[in-house]
Amino acid sequence: MDIKEYFARISYQGSHNKPDLATMSDIFQHHIRAIPYENLSIHCGETIELDLEPIYNKIVRKKRGGWCMENNYLLFWVLKTLGYDITLLGAKVYVPERDAYPEDINHLLLRVDLDGKSYILDAGFGMAYQMWQPMELISGTDQPQTPGVFRFQEENGIWYFEKVRRKQWVLNPSTSTSPNVEDEVCRRVYLFTLQPRDIEEFRGCNAHLQTAPNSKFVLKSMCSMQTADGIRELVGWKLTEIKYNYRDNMDHVEIRMLAEEELEKTLREKFSLTLDKKFVPVDNKLF
Fold first, then answer.
1. φ and ψ of 139, to 5 deg
2. Annotation marks residue 107 as catalytic
3. Which terminus of the chain is more solvent-facing, meaning fewer CB atoms within 10 Å of its CB: N or C?
4. Global pTM?
5. Where do runs of H (alpha helix) occur along 68-179?
6. Out of 31, 43, 122, 223, which one is annotated catalytic?
7. pLDDT averaged over the chain?
8. How far apart are CA 69 and CA 71, in angstroms?
9. Which member of 16, 68, 205, 223 is catalytic?
10. What is the DSSP letter of 197?
């Protein structure tokens, strides 16, 4: 594995001699804009492995994306190689359909301690809840970013990650001729503790999430890419494109259903992805 090859993959040409906040933030932003969040391996008959070499080969050399454990474990290796004080953490992702969190951790994220402060990095949540910059680990303080306002709330050693989404101007040509305005909303994303984790602790959920019949990742094929001013996401055949803060503190959302013959071209042109095996999209109800 070669750090310079990784930098070429994310088109990063900045300095990396000093492990400071500016360098870390720059690398992080390049990562999320170059590497898609995606679970397409599950829907191409591939197995998602949780070792660095296969992750590196898949994301860096084959120019694929990955889900949280792949993206964040790769970023962990990058930042550790550059000299950062970095720790793996485990989270439980909020399930809005059940208004609950799962019993076991099912998400990997990163903590970096730097100059007397702690930061949370998560390059593997994807979709519209992806942070764009490292977040300082402080409770109850709004941290505005381009996608919206993020914050942490700490209660008895448990940290809750939330996002306040702007109003959305939603254009869906397949269902309506006039746009629909959706109100601003605060959404819980996940909870976590500061207990350091080892990658071995994620092997069980890595296997479960790609095989369990009721897993969100089995029921839905997903791919998302952060752009300069928003996000693109493909769930099943539904392509959503969001421009953040399009006007009047409102996001512009456009939704389109793709035909089967458009999928390969869309993945290539909008997500820079070329798959080795036949992709079978799915978009089933979760519950």
1. -95, 140
2. yes
3. C
4. 0.95
5. 68-81
6. 122
7. 94
8. 6
9. 68
10. B
